[in-house]
């Protein structure tokens, strides 16, 4: 046996390092299969070894005697982190095997996360195999179709032609946007971090001398991902409403562009120094204070007005919670953090597992918890109900249940209507308010009111007293 092959079998990274530094060929092909060591390391899912080989010059665009590339091996073993890793080191995303199939053909109906990764690295969805089929022609199962639907709300009836239109639509918007809303990074200055996250930071800064918030996305956007990003930013910028935070513009990180290269992809927002509703509630609780009745009603109206507007714009927020609501200097509320959730690393809305992986379990509507993909804007009404509850009780909804019972039990309880939040027998808020709040988190989405109705009821309540 070839010594590197043997060391891979033995999972002996040290031995491999020794062999390579003593001059063994990292790209030595097996006579029989035409495969180099990286193939075996991928087949055996030895991630450390794969990393070492790649970083030390393993050829990623080699083709074995069966027409397979290392990327195809990683795709076949459904190892999404290896797929992403190989792509980030320049593996050809559109390589074809002897049947004319690309990786996308193979995986589109099997693994939506990998499909998404391939598309985001620019995979061409219009390459045909030797049967003259597009990857999307193999999309038959519900999950795949729902994955495709995520590209747009109106994308209900799947067909390759429609998909094609979409991609083009993204491209047009992207080009239009490029000139219009791109900010000049030279005029952008950071002042201090607001939130330093592991994945992307939010900074207080200035743009053109005005105070702004800068929300950074560390990931490089490419291919379809980039076009979706453009599209979402276009939507954010179009959303102008007193209860929605204003998006001023955005900047795009480009590897090829050495001058602008310095600054990561980010969006620039109007800045509010008071912080979020969540922080406000936490502080009140510490001092054992409550939000005044009038404040709760006025806040409730602000959020409902903002959400009514978003729904009219065709946007489902999907992550409405007190941490995603800011307080202005005039004590009004503005909704933030919608539209771009798919670009948070580790968070994509493609499959249920993934949207369930987001840290906002508590506010998630039962139908999302159950993993349904055909949910409606009423999921936001549910989350809204929980925000109202939090303003009244000053507690994070379902905090204890999640803490003591864990996610699985939470999911099986809330997701199947076996539990819901407690409703106070006596409250300092009017009964109409409490009833409205409970209607919002009704288990059945059809029983939840629309935001337009919520606004009307709340205004009546406000005027009554
Ligand atoms: N425009 C802004 N002005 C002031 N603070 C902000 C602004 N945008 C976000 N923040 C702060 O950063 C936090 C996270 O922002 P968000 O957009 O929700 O990011 P994430 O995607 O990490 O959840 C908010 O809860 C708020 O405290
Ligand atoms: Mg947020």
From TrEMBL:
Query: Which windows of the sequence hold ANK repeats?
Result: 33-65, 66-98
Could you tell me what this protein is called? Serine/threonine-protein kinase sty13
Tell me where in this chain the Protein kinase domain is found. Answer: 188-461
Q: What is the lineage of its organism?
A: Eukaryota, Metamonada, Anaeramoebidae, Anaeramoeba
| Keyword terms | ANK repeat, ATP-binding, Kinase, Nucleotide-binding, Transferase
Natural source organism:
Anaeramoeba ignava
**PANTHER family noted in UniProt:** MITOGEN-ACTIVATED PROTEIN KINASE KINASE KINASE 20, SERINE/THREONINE-PROTEIN KINASE TNNI3K-RELATED
Q: Which Pfam families match?
A: Ank_2, PK_Tyr_Ser-Thr
Q: Which family does it belong to?
A: Belongs to the protein kinase superfamily. TKL Ser/Thr protein kinase family.
């Amino acid at each position: 046996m070839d010594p590197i092959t043997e060391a891979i079998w033995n999972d002996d990274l040290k031995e491999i390092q020794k062999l390579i530094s003593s001059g063994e060929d990292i790209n030595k092909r097996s006579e029989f299969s035409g495969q180099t060591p990286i193939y075996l390391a991928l087949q055996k899912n030895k991630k450390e070894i794969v990393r070492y080989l790649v970083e030390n010059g393993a050829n990623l665009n080699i083709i074995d005697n069966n027409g397979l590339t290392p990327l195809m091996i990683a795709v076949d073993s459904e190892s999404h982190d290896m797929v992403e890793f190989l792509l980030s080191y320049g593996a050809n995303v559109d390589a074809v095997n002897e049947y004319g199939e690309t990786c996308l053909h193979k995986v589109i109906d099997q693994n939506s996360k990998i499909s998404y990764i391939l598309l985001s690295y620019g995979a061409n969805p219009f390459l045909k195999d030797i049967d003259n089929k597009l990857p999307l022609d193999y999309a038959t199962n519900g999950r795949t179709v729902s994955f495709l639907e995520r590209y747009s709300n109106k994308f209900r009836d799947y067909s390759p032609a429609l998909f094609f239109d979409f991609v083009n639509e993204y491209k047009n918007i992207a080009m239009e946007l490029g000139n219009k809303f791109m900010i000049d990074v030279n005029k952008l200055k950071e002042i201090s971090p607001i939130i330093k996250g592991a994945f992307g930071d939010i900074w207080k800064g200035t743009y053109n001398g005005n105070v702004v918030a800068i929300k950074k996305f560390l990931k490089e956007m490419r291919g379809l991902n980039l076009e979706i990003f453009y599209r979402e930013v276009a939507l954010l910028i179009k959303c102008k409403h007193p209860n929605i935070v204003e998006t001023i513009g955005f900047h795009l990180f480009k590897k090829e562009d050495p001058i602008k290269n310095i600054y990561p992809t980010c969006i620039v927002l109007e800045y509010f120094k008071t912080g979020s509703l969540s922080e406000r509630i936490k502080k009140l609780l510490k001092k054992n204070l409550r939000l005044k009745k009038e404040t709760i009603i006025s806040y409730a109206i602000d959020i409902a007005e903002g959400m009514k507007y978003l729904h009219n714009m065709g946007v489902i927020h999907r992550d409405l919670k007190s941490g995603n609501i800011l307080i202005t200097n005039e004590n009004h509320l503005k909704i933030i953090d919608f539209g771009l959730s798919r670009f948070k690393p580790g968070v994509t809305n493609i499959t249920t597992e993934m949207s369930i992986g987001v840290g906002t379990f508590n506010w998630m509507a039962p139908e999302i918890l159950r993993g349904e993909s055909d949910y409606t804007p009423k999921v936001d009404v549910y989350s809204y109900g929980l925000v109202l509850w939090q303003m009244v009780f000053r507690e994070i909804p379902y905090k204890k249940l999640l803490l003591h019972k864990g996610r699985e039990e939470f999911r099986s309880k809330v997701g199947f209507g076996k539990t819901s939040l407690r409703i106070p027998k006596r409250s300092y808020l009017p009964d109409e308010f409490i009833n409205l709040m409970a209607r919002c988190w009704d288990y059945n989405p059809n029983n939840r009111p629309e935001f337009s109705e919520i606004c009307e009821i709340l205004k009546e309540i406000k005027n009554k007293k």
